[in-house]
Amino acid sequence: MKILTILGARPQFIKAGTVSREIAKYEDIEEVIVHTGQHYDANMSDIFFDEMKIPKPNYFLGIGGKTHGAMTGQMIEKIEEVCFKEKPDWILVYGDTNSTLAGAIVASKLHIKLAHIEAGLRSFNMQMPEETNRILTDRVSTILFCPTKSAITNLQKEGFDNFDCKIVQSGDVMQDGAMFYKNLAKKPSCSIAKNYILVTIHRAENTDNQERLTEIFEALQEIAKEKQIILPLHPRTKAMIDTLKIDTSSLTIIDPVGYLEMVWLIDNCDLVMTDSGGLQKEAFFFEKPCLTLRDETEWVELIEYGYNILVGANKEKIIKSYKEHAFNDNYNLDFYGVGKASTIIVKGLLGD
Ligand code: UDP
Prior knowledge:
Blueprint: E1 2-7, H1 10-23, E2 30-35, H2 46-52, E3 59-60, H3 68-86, E4 90-94, H4 98-110, E5 113-117, H5 129-139, E6 143-146, H6 149-157, E7 166-169, H7 173-182, E8 196-200, H8 204-207, H9 210-223, E9 228-232, H10 235-244, E10 252-254, H11 259-268, E11 271-274, H12 277-285, E12 290-292, H13 300-304, E13 308-310, H14 315-324, H15 341-349
The structure holds uridine-5'-diphosphate.
């Protein structure tokens, strides 16, 4: 059996690595990995792949830095060419990027079976390009591997029980990854207090909105009077802070860190504050409370059960939640599976 995996960004490679390591256990499955180049990342050198124990891509399409239409269109054309050559039995896509959608469209048009990992997630915000990508990819998938129960419910509400597809609650590949990488975690070289808060901010809804960004940083400056705040700073956020001359003098700002250092930072912090999707879940995997600097989240179970609170970008709300919110500290609930998602996924592809 031949699987063509389509990836476009570093986080997707990290997630897909868990499945690739599982596929490698089967002699009769061949995986061919295509890197679309959607997010060019200078940190994705050979060292990255070796350190993360991830197979290197077989194809690099080099399609990045374009408008959504140009990018997705060119990816469709190039992925189709790879399919003509490789003749895969399955196309495997992850998440909600333009690379995900391009892979899905090629699979659908060429009648290649499509597996969508992280299927069924919804933010219910159609302004997000990711929401379009998710919905369209799910609709043409042969098998939908859902990370959570709520993802399955979303699909059922959209009528997926009536469609010719298979829905599987696989658990979340990021849970598998967290357990795998915990043992490989590396302490970053910056000076770190015993108790600290880990913060990341990179979403356009915050970085491209002066009011939101200013309020968030005013709140962080205030909280940093009590506890060290470590902020690996995304280049987009850095550019906006410089342009708007936002005060960050009380924060420990460091360059973006490699994933193994990130895992160390999550595992050892007291609290996570973030607008990242992935980090909200990683906080839960490492049993840390999380304040989410967004107005909505795909990970609704974390909110519902009191592990995470949506604080948006309101200074007072952020500070008040930091000071007063009592989080659920029973981390025994397995919303995201038990770290066996990649096993379930590969068995699902084999039709077991
Ligand atoms: N991450 C990292 N180093 C950083 C910032 C983030 O390794 O300096 C990791 C983070 O832990 C998460 C992944 O990159 O697993 C994706 O996070 P990001 O916030 O970029 O994107 P999102 O999850 O919102 O798609």
